[in-house]
Batch of 3 targets.
Target 1
Amino acid sequence: MQMKTASVVAVSASVGLSIHKGKTKVLKFKEENSNPITLDGETLEDVEAFTYLGIIIDEEAGSDADVKARIGRARVAFLQFKNIWNS
């Protein structure tokens, strides 16, 4: 994974793009390789889950966390209409 990361950095730099080390996170689906991923000598933060395009992605590659979050948001929206429906 380190080699692929270095390759992405090199290709990005060749077209004038840079990768923000503070915003870049690592999510490992399989813990076979526990070596840290580095970017220009700095170790990237390992995370258990993150949100991408509004969808929660976790290390189990499941959707439980995302479904629970969506149900919670729907519940909040539904409860906002409670006064209207009860009148």
Target 2
Amino acid sequence: MDSKVASFISSHAIPWIAAAVFFHISVATTSFAADSFSTDGHTVLSSPPDGRIQNRPYQMNRLTKIGGESKHSERILGLYGDEMIIYSPSGTIEDVVDGPYSHACAAFDPETETVFLGSSISGGDGIYSLHLGQEDWKSEYQNLTAVGRLAEVENNLQQLANQVEQFSRPDYQTAVKPTTIVTGGSAEEIGEDFLSRHDYENVCFVQYNLFTEDYDRDILAAPWSTKGETRHKYDFSAAQIIAFAREREERKEPFALWAGHGNDPFYMQLRTIEGILEAAPTMAKAFVFPEMERTDEAMEYAVRTHLIPIAELCRQHGTAKVVLRNKNIFWNASCYLDLWRETLLGDKYRDVFVPSMEETNGRTQTISLSGRMGLWLCGYFDVLSARAVTDNANFSRFWEWGAQQNQTHLMRSLAMRTALGAETCLVNIDQGDPRDLATFYQMLDKGIITPPDPEDLLSVSDLCLGMKTPASRFLEHGKNGHATSLYAPREEPMVFDRMDCYWGDALTDDADFSNYAMGSRRRMLNSLLTNPYGLIASVPADIDLSEHSRFREKLVTDGEFFYNKHCRSVSAREYKETAVAALERSATRLPIRVEGDVAWVVSRINKTHIRITLIDPGYVSPADRDATIVLQHVQGASCRDILSGKSLPITQGRISLTVPAGVLRIVDISIE
């Protein structure tokens, strides 16, 4: 970097950014308008509706003052995803310019009339300059090219795409498990984006639609009789919805429906859902219900009169699933409370209910994955689901970053979850190009990544975490996505701690189990686990290990305390030494272990071949990662990178390699 530029950034950018944060936090943005407020509540900029501004969900308009000292030349520059918005001081929108990337911040140097743009939030490390005195500066913004780390990531992604295109499945891999991708709003959209570019044999694409029905809600009990969602119109008739389903059946177009939400599980009447299933018994694939965590009387009514009957109808009419896209620590805590334990943790609906996640405004992805994996491995669910959505990059509503134009973070997260066993992926892309995930879909189709059966997943520790009825403190803080009032200084750390919204990006306590056992060093974007001891699955505490050969040892917790062999509570800090000793014992029993800062999954392809998926864990901070595969209880005859085709040497049972920034490597080991 030029020394003058570096000096300017050092002395000017940080003060400007600090001043802009004030605007960023207080900017309220709708589809077409924006307002900014000062700390005392006064409006400092009010922008009227403007059709040039696109709807950018869950990311903030970052404002920077630009121009000369006179009011005549002063302007406000807004970075709103990949859009650059130019405002007059009064808030009138003068221009909207689309660019190829979303940037972290901006700083203006009045001496040179230059705007410096901070790095791309997709993981870049470059600084870009726009000289406002030049007539073509807007064109320069529209045509920015990646530099530094982001350019490296883009090159790695292109190389991966080329390798996937040329890949031929090895003779010893005879089967590819079918997978389902729920994405796009129509068969035409799916066809244009994906099916016209590749012939898929093992991936089923399912369109995702929303209908909210106009019906007399007096048939429901309070509060649902008068409570809908303000974001929806409720303007479809039952006949229209059923006609849509019938048309999909006739056209052989698979579809899934967003059927309810924790704010209103009753988007449609039960009889309308029955009509959908009768009209489309083979094409209706799923009913999706996000954020159904509550356990109050109103939710119990919804579960017993609506959700469970839907599960029964799915079984009667075809093979549709009910996908529970729940949030925060549901799969570690709320599912162990009476209502959900009775509904989900029995054998009755294991073939219908599918555990999935809403990981937006989330800081506990590591913990949640442990919970879902444990329930699946113990047989409480037949199918696992993965999810990718633009909003996943937001770990706090105080400062939103969900505008990545490059989809490498979502691709890697989906790759890990499918390598762990997820057969269904829910994908909603609002920023960037959804076709960026085509390489991942082709990896599924060709069997490069194929979801293993539970017994073929070899990177799960035989030490499990047994979850008792969750402690009230664990529940309160684990579900706190918005309230700052719960903060109390110098509290004794819990087994899982610092989960609230105000801990976003904070370091985890060194006594936190997710810190030392799962590799979660910060409360942000923990979607790609490094699992230094193998994946630690969370299971019901009362599970009988003698009936589950996968697990040999169990640590018991309620999320706040551990419980020793005498059933007495022990603090997280006091119990850490005992827990670490158990983790180290179990890790020595893994057939294969991976050392280094990588996310990893080991699965069995057949009796003589093991596949290891190694992933760059930097969700929005990609980098080259060194890793060492350690063969502990298998004898490796050879090792081959299945994408590059190159053989890797095995030296004293160890294989060293580097995972390129923003992507992954997959190796097969032939065992003796």
Target 3
Amino acid sequence: MSTYKFTLSEQFRTLAKEELREEDDAVRLDAINQLRDWIVKNPAIKHCRTDDVFLLKFLRFRKFAVHQAGESIERYLAARQKMPQWFQGTDPNADPLASIMDDCPITVLGRDDAGRTVIFIRVASYDAETLTQDSIMRYVMMMLDTLTEQEEVQIGGVRIWMDCTGISMKFVSLFHLSEYATMIDLMTKTMPVRIRQIHSVKLPKF
């Protein structure tokens, strides 16, 4: 039985109600308990978090449609099993993630007036000479997993600015064409993050 209490500002309470169908405490608690019970009784799921924050990630991602939230959890768990190289070894204090973080390619700038978390990405900050596709994706997945632990991010979503100044062909070649679809699917359908806007500047011509 969930004991969750909503402690965010009225702005996020209103956003949750108007955009995510998170009508009130009773609706929220009922959905949390339904989803937790579904996980516990699902024979296909062996190991999965069932704490309130984790469940709310997916309920808010799917606008409190419990069945769809459950399907999203299955997709997320399947992705972690299928692509362990992108989800395991995410200690930020150990290389290669520590080295990537030193270069600060992803910076969280705060929240805008609409409650969206603003993320600034300097694409050229990734060292194309030493990094691999897997290490970059591991860093991105770690950042998304960490950010979506914040309820403000779950409700308000994110607004992304990508600065492509100085991006090299060497960097572009790190990513295999055959896996672009997988990466896009992860970002838009699997990871429980509401991407509200993406802006890109200084896109290369190649």
